[in-house]
Amino acid sequence: MINSSKKHLENARESYFEHMFFALKISINLILGGFMALIHSIVPGIFTKNASTIILNLSDQIKERKKNN
How far apart (Å, rounded) are the C-alpha atoms in residues 12 and 24? Predict the structure, then answer.
C-alpha cells in the first residue's frame, strides 16, 4: 500500500500534504453538498442551487487539476 501511495503521489506530482489537503477539501465539500441535497429533498424550497453549484465547482477544480498534471 505504501508503494502504491508513493506512485500515486508521483503521478499527481504532489507532496503528501498537498494531496491530503486537496482530498480533504473535496471530501468536506462533498459532505456539505450531500447534506444540502438531503435537506433539499425534504424541503424543496431550501438549498435550491447549493448542492448542484458545489458539484459543478468541484468538477471544474478536478478538471483543472488533471489538466495541469
Answer: 16
